[in-house]
Hints:
- The protein is built from one helix and no strands.
- By secondary structure, it is an all-alpha fold.
- The mean pLDDT is 90.
Amino acid sequence: MLEERLVKIETKITFQEDLIEELNKTVYQQQIKLGRLEAVCESLVRHIESLEEAGGEGKHVNERPPHY
Length: 68
């Protein structure tokens, strides 16, 4: 009886350890992707700002043409 309970507990602990390891890998991979996305967003912001500085003298990107 006691032996059976110990085996069940050890099995559960082993399963939980495996699950925690998988979750850690997933969080690590998501952190890498998040870092890449942040870098892309920062690059896009800088690009948009440089476009605004270069040719945005009074013109709006979404402005309707005069024939509308």
